[in-house]
Write a structure and sequence with these properties.
The structure holds two protein chains of two kinds. Chain A is mainly alpha-helical. Helix content of chain A is 73%, strand content 0%. Chain B is mainly α. Helix content of chain B is 73%, strand content 0%. Chain B has twelve helices and no strands. In chain B, α9 packs antiparallel against α12. Classes of the chains: A mainly alpha, B mainly alpha. Chains A and B meet through α2, α4, α5, α6 and α7 of A and α1, α3, α4, α5 and α6 of B.
């Protein structure tokens, strides 16, 4: 290292060579510092001001956060996120793990089946939302299909039912993302030493037992990765709501991301919108920090 | 391992479950295609999976009239943004793996967090900035935004990939007097084809499918296809033309579907790159 350094210090051209890496990285460093951290700070500042249609810098302390916590729509959005996020993550994990384990049984045409499970992930949430809005259409969608097929009394109008509309979002989101969970776990299963399974089989354990007791517990890291990614998708979910329900009926299917957009950009409540964005960041950090902490700790123990 | 008994009840159950799941994943696509080729009468009288009495392309033509222009906007936004962010990511990754300096690891940590950033926290300042730059509601403005907020992932891809390249290779070239860009162009770039593919495909799907930036930063003529599709589907005026909606959704989804079918291997690698430790 030192010999390289002394050699490079000789001429001005070499000096340039020495600075080149820093010069190349500089624009990106600037972009990240300003566009990520500077802007977060800016939004944080805005959340303490009375900004409405235009930004203003009159300090109002925690007023916007208090208003947010008194806002019924914010509570509906937060509660929806818990219901939506919980069900979406839980069901996606369940389906993903199940399909991965079944696909791991030396299935012919595995490649084709995998492709089918994963293709929704390539689509925009807007496309997914549009498709499911039509599929779940009360009157012409699934509703009519099952009646035409002979189930006379079948009704399906969750999309316009304020109590159930959030489950429609869950259905579409699970369709979109569960194949991805399958792919993650399948990759994990391929890394499991087959001799462990063989040894357990010799001991007379049944295959389902082996998976439940030995194989799946060894995939804990994959499980946490999937959990992180799904939670991240859930918190950021905006396009799916926009396309499928636009938050409706009323604001029954609002999510925080939708709330933030509506208040900041259509209702002229920049201050409150910024406060909601900061709370979303808080939610992400609350999941991210323990995850990264445990990741780093486990690496140190290795 | 255990002998294959293809017709045992448990294997039959496995195959049945997998096939049922295939059907469930495919049905929405089939319904979209069927509906897009139906006439409005067929849609009203039939059901989701009924075969159309007449197959008509009128839904597709109307849809293309409505969103075709915005399709080209998406192309104009996506292609430059993908290329620029990939190039920058490659250079950043090269520096962060091969030319580390004091503070470069800290920078990488800061950048990594960008992968998890909820964009809601930067929307307002970013829109003020675009306004100041005179780029509000332009496709150029969206290119800039996508480059900036794609940088975290593209850098991560290349940095992790280059970290697995033996450092001695670069050291030797440096001793031979090869400069910064020579080493990059002659040694690293030629071996980067797989990660370039992953990065291009990841960025392409991310940017093509983006809705949030599109709806916030572009109005009117500069809208990307996702925003135009959402406007088309969620306008409450007039009679709903579901065949047009579905055709427009197919138009918006086809480019990324095509990429997925052609280069699915790289697509999957991009998806899992964030999750699998590098």
């Amino acid at each position: 290292m030192t010999t390289v350094a002394t050699r490079l210090r000789r001429s001005p051209l070499d000096a340039l060579q020495r600075w080149l890496p820093k010069l190349v990285l500089a624009p990106s460093m600037l972009i990240i510092l300003v566009g990520f951290y500077g802007y977060i700070l800016w939004t944080l500042v805005l959340s303490f001001t009375n900004s409405s249609f235009m930004p203003s810098y009159k300090w109002v302390g925690l007023t916007q956060y208090m208003k947010l916590l008194e806002n019924d729509r914010w509570w509906v959005a937060s509660k929806n996120l818990l219901v939506f996020g919980g069900l979406f993550i839980g069901i996606s994990l369940l389906i993903g793990v199940l399909l991965a384990v079944l696909l791991d049984q030396r299935i012919r045409r595995e490649g084709f089946i995998r492709t089918v499970y994963l293709y929704p992930m390539a689509l925009s949430m807007i496309v997914t939302g549009t498709a499911w809005k039509w599929l779940l259409n009360p009157g012409l969608g699934l509703d009519k299909l099952l009646r035409d097929w002979g189930w006379e009394g079948f009704r399906f109008d969750w999309l316009v039912d304020p109590e159930r509309v959030v489950y429609c979002l869950v259905i579409a989101a699970v369709w979109q993302s569960s194949g991805f969970v399958m792919a993650l776990f399948l990759a994990g299963l391929r890394g499991v030493d087959p001799s462990i399974i063989r040894a357990a089989q010799v001991d007379g354990a049944s295959l389902p037992r082996i998976y439940l007791r030995i194989v799946l517990p060894s995939l804990r890291p994959v499980f946490f990765s999937a959990l992180m990614i799904l939670a991240h998708i859930a918190i950021k979910s905006f396009d799916l709501v926009a396309a499928m329900t636009a938050g409706g009926p009323g604001y029954a299917s609002d999510l925080p991301a939708m709330f933030m957009y509506a208040f900041t950009f259509s209702r002229g409540q920049m201050g409150m919108g910024s406060a909601s964005a900061i709370l979303m960041l808080g939610a992400i950090l609350a999941i991210l920090v323990p995850y990264l902490y445990s990741e780093l700790r486990s690496k140190r123990h290795d | 391992m255990t002998s294959h008994r293809w017709f045992s009840p448990s294997r039959l159950a496995i195959h049945a479950t997998l096939l049922l799941a295939c059907a469930l994943y495919l049905i929405p696509l089939i319904v979209m295609l069927l509906t897009s080729f139906k006439s409005p009468e067929d849609i009203r009288t039939g059901n989701l999976l009924s075969w159309p009495h007449v197959i008509t392309g009128s839904g597709w033509l109307t849809a293309w009239d409505a969103v075709g222009g915005y399709f080209w906007n998406s192309v104009k936004i996506t292609l430059p943004a993908v290329l620029i962010s990939t190039l920058l990511g490659a250079l950043n990754g090269y520096v962060l793996s091969m030319w580390r300096f004091r503070g470069s690891q800290l920078f990488f940590g800061l950048l990594l967090f960008g992968c998890f950033l909820p964009f809601q926290t930067v929307l307002l300042p970013a829109s003020f900035t675009l306004g100041k730059l005179g780029l509000a509601s332009t496709t150029t403005g969206l290119v800039l935004i996508h480059v900036v907020y794609g940088l975290a992932f593209t850098t991560l891809f290349f940095r992790n990939y280059y970290c697995s390249v033996p450092h001695a290779l670069v050291q030797a070239a440096r001793l031979d007097g090869a400069g910064f860009f020579t080493i990059f162009g002659r040694i690293l770039l030629p071996m980067s084809v797989p990660i370039i593919m992953v990065c291009l495909i990841w960025q392409f799907t991310q940017i093509w499918n983006d809705f949030l930036f599109g709806v916030v930063f572009a109005s009117g003529d500069a809208q990307p296809i996702t925003v135009a599709l959402n406007n088309l589907v969620n306008t409450s005026t007039g009679v709903k033309q579901y065949n047009v909606d579905m055709a427009a959704a197919m138009i918006a989804g086809l480019p990324t579907l095509l990429v997925y079918v052609v280069a699915g291997k790289y697509f999957l690698r991009g998806l899992t790159a964030g999750a699998v430790k590098g």
